[in-house]
Write a structure and sequence with these properties.
The complex is a heterodimer of chains A (92) and B (96).
Chain A (H helix, E strand, L loop, with lengths): L1 E9 L13 E7 L10 E5 L8 E6 L1 H4 L11 E6 L2 E4 L2 E2 L1
Parallel strand pairs in A: 3-5
Antiparallel strand pairs in A: 1-2, 1-4, 2-3, 4-5, 6-7
Chain B lengths: L1 E10 L12 E6 L11 E5 L8 E6 L1 H8 L8 E6 L6 H7 L1
Parallel strand pairs in B: 3-5
Antiparallel strand pairs in B: 1-2, 1-4, 2-3, 4-5
Classes of the chains: A mainly beta (92), B alpha+beta (96).
Chain lengths: 92, 96
Amino acid sequence: MILGTVIGRVVATTKAVGLEGRKFLLVQPQDEHGHSNGHPVVAVDTVMAGLGDPVYMVLSREAAQALDPWFVPVDHAIVGIVDQITVEGAAT
Amino acid sequence: MILARVVGTVVSTIKHPAYQGLKLYAVRRLDAAGEAVGESFLAVDTVQSGVGDTVLVLREGTGLRQIFRKEVLPIRSAVVGVVDNVDWARFRACQE
């Protein structure tokens, strides 16, 4: 799983079977200090996350398993909203 | 599995039900010198490890479904061991 921040919302009318009714958010992956790591990704939301929220995502096949039904073509899913990250005693 | 160091804790209230009651850590992989390197990632704790510990991290979902005895589980990485000691000496001797 990785950390990130929601930076946008993605709307797609035409999509693969199994993706109907899902909320897609654009997420910038980050490290534990809030520094960006690589390129933004599109993730399915499972926790009602919103723009600007710090979140964590599960990747790969396990992302689909965050959904019900889980046999869907998804590779990034937001599975939590971060309240606080503590690194070596200091909150970031 | 990989050797990693627990570098931080992540607290969250709103989360997927599969993550309820689990401790979530930020971890970083260790290189051959035992230094934390590369990008950090998150892992759930299954062995009561703590921040600063050198740990074994499993990064594969099916193994986790086995640990948690679930058919479907949206978790991909977990701390599965607390490392007491790594005998680097033989490796380093080979390097020299």
